[in-house]
Amino acid sequence: MAQRSMIIVGAGVGGLAAGCYARMNGYDAHILEMGERLGGCCTSWRRGDYVFDGCLHNLGGTDFGSALNRMWRELGVVPQLRMGAFTEQVAVERDQGEPLILYADLDRLSARLKTLAPADADRIDRLIAGARFFAGFDMMGLALAGPAKRYAALLRMLPLALRWRSMTLGDLAKRFSHPFLRAAVPRLIYDWPEQSVLMLLYFLGRLSVGDLGWVEGGSAALSAAIGKRFAQLGGTIRYGARVRSIIVEGDRAVGVRLADGDEERADVIVSDADGRTTIFDMLGGRYASHKQRLFYSRPEDRVEMGVHLSFGVDAAFTSEPHAIVIPLDPPTEIDREVRDRLFVQIFNHDRSYAPPGKTVIKVLFGTSFNRWERLAADAAAYQAAKDRILGAVGAALERRFPGFLDAVEVADVATPITSLRFTGAGHGYEDSMSGVMSSLFLGRRRGRSLPGLADFYQVGQWAGVPGVPFVAADGRNLVKALCRKEGRPFVARWPSDAESPHPAFAALA
Ligand SMILES: Cc1cc2nc3c(=O)[nH]c(=O)nc-3n(C[C@H](O)[C@H](O)[C@H](O)COP(=O)(O)OP(=O)(O)OC[C@H]3O[C@@H](n4cnc5c(N)ncnc54)[C@H](O)[C@@H]3O)c2cc1C
Q1: Atom of ligand 1 lying closest to residue 54 CA
Q2: Whole-number Å distance between alpha carbons of 370 and 299
Q3: Cα 501 vs. chain centroid, distance in angstroms?
């Protein structure tokens, strides 16, 4: 069979993974990336001697026995990058008294919770039992499974899903009698009270077996490793190549037109770019389904984790957990919201973010896209808003870590407008546990293909669900589906020394 060609719009993890598997399966794969670097949302940036990470807190597939770990191997992440497990997920602090530390060791966690709140022992036991179920249930790995395995897994999980189905962490907290547990439980997963209890159980279970850990070098290193694998497989990336439109002839996608007027053609066109831009700008909305029109007509204003404040600090923070929630007393107005706490990441688990003896500290919070969009229309107002936030958060961190402000060497604020500029997507993303579960168990997705348009596919978080492993699995699954359609076996292989580096590798390294 003659080699088929594939153009992929966007070098996010979804696009890169699609490219790698396309190359493994004989496609001539070429990525067009509007920016100057790969990774999309899964990125980091350098400020002085420090690396500020814009994405990964927990990575699915750091457990070496998990299905996702195999995929990371295929994509060249393992063994190139070291992976590590967290011994705890977060410590929720309070004004007085010991913090609540969410230990990865379930026995230790159970003992700690029961010492803190003996009257809540029954509820704690139920929670730990749910977590133990997930320790042996590689739910995220189902992203790579076929329908039979997925349905069997669904049956196995059904009793647990029915028990906790629509309960949020906020709801769960109300069931505890101990006042600090009631206050702390909603904060346990990224300080996000609307998260499902199932997500908490999943995290606890998987953390206990070393999954949902970290990868050395963080987000940019992970993306670069996949980019390197793509180049070694013979794939090519053209940077600074913003795709304006997809060329369609007779209801068949045949190529793309770039902002600079260039045209490139291929047998198959794949978009990893954000869904609204792809469907309504690049394709003029001609092939949008009713469901898609509805979904994209109501962009989420709320962006969870929309503001990133990163500090490069000349101090080691060795005795701190890698994530803490600190109370703000009195509550403080930051970014137009009165906040009574801050979610703080301390990058002390992986020393590649900062020079020896120094540390990156990051604060993340939810915000409004529309407000930042209005602010961005006035450069001075935008900068002033960022400075105000930096001042307020810096002062709060100084109270928690005396001497902090004097030790700060460099600081940086990223907003939803920063994301918009670098990835094309700035709005919030509906990220519900039910969405993740219906994608994993039932294979339901927002849409890979568009009705009436041949040879065009979407990949990544706008086609499925967000999450670095999910979008990578999506790239794999797309190529698998294409192979099935063409009646040939799907090939997924690990890097071997036999593969000589592609010339493009030198440019990427
Ligand atoms: C703050 C934050 C924290 C997160 N934390 C985690 C975490 O802890 N664990 C986890 O697993 N996931 C996490 N995620 C989610 C994860 O980062 C994303 O779901 C994933 O990286 C999305 O990848 P993607 O390839 O689908 O899309 P993107 O990363 O958005 O990539 C799209 C690419 O397309 C390019 N592009 C767009 N338009 C065009 C165009 N017109 N022409 C050419 N190129 C174009 C963009 O520049 C970009 O490179 C987090 C996300 C955020 C924002």
Answers
A1: 1
A2: 10
A3: 29
Q: In the predicted model, what is the mean pLDDT of residues 313-337? A: 95
Quick: pLDDT tens for 248-277. 999 999 999 999 999 999 999 999 999 999
Q: Degrees (nearest 5) of the Cα angle 195, 198, 201?
A: 110
For the residues of 109-146, what is the DSSP string, one character each? Answer: HHHHHHHH-GGGHHHHHHHHHHHHHHHT--TGGGGG--
Residue 499: is its pLDDT beyond 80?
no
Structure tokens at 296: 């994209």
Other C-beta atoms within 10 Å of 373: how many?
17
Question: Please, what are the domains in the chain?
Answer: 5-45+220-298+429-500 (3.50.50.60), 97-208 (no CATH), 302-423 (no CATH)
High-pLDDT (> 90) share of the chain, %:
86
What's the CA-to-centroid distance between 13 and ligand 1, angstroms? Answer: 7
CA distance 104 to 114: 16
What's the mean pLDDT when you consider all of the chain?
Answer: 93
Contact by Cβ (8 Å): 86, 213: yes
Please give the Cα distance from 285 to 313 (Å, whole number).
Answer: 47
pLDDT in tens, 105-151: 999 999 999 999 999 999 999 999 999 999 999 999 999 999 999 99
Contact 215, 82 (CB under 8 A): yes
d(CA 246, CA 361): 42
* Pairing relationship of beta strands 50-53 and 44-47 according to DSSP bridges: antiparallel
- Mean pLDDT along residues 25-35: 97
Cα of 32 vs centre of ligand 1, distance in Å, is: 15
Q: Could you tell me if the CB of 423 is within 6 A of ligand 1?
A: yes
For ligand 1, atom 38, which residue shows the shortest CA distance? 273
**pLDDT tens-digit readout, 449-480:** 999 999 999 999 999 889 999 999 999 999 99
